[in-house]
Amino acid sequence: MSERYALDLAGRVVELVRRLGGPGAEAEVVVTRSELALTRFANSFIHQNVAESGVGVRLRLHADGRTAAGSGSVVTPDGLAALVERTLAAARLCPPDPAWPGLTPPVSVPAVPAWDEATAFAEPDERAERVRAFVAAVGGLEAAGYCRTAYRAAAFANSAGHSAQGSAAEAAMDGIARAGAADGVARLCADRLADLDGAALGFRAATKARAAVDPVELPPGRYEVVLEPAAVADLLHNFAMWGFNGKRFAERQSFVEPGVAQFDPAVTLVDDPLGGSGLPFDAEGTGRRALTLVDAGTTVAVAHDRRSGAQAGAGSTGHAEPGATTFGPTPGNLRLTGVGGVSTAGATRGTGTPVAGATATGGGPPGGAETPGGPLDGPETPGGPVLDAETAALVAGMERGLLVSDLWYTRVLDTKSLVITGLTRNGVWLVEGGVPVRAVRDFRFTESYPRALGPGAVLGIGRRPVRQPDRVDGVWWDAPALRLAAWNFTGGASG
Question: What pTM value is reported for the model?
Answer without folding.
Answer: 0.91
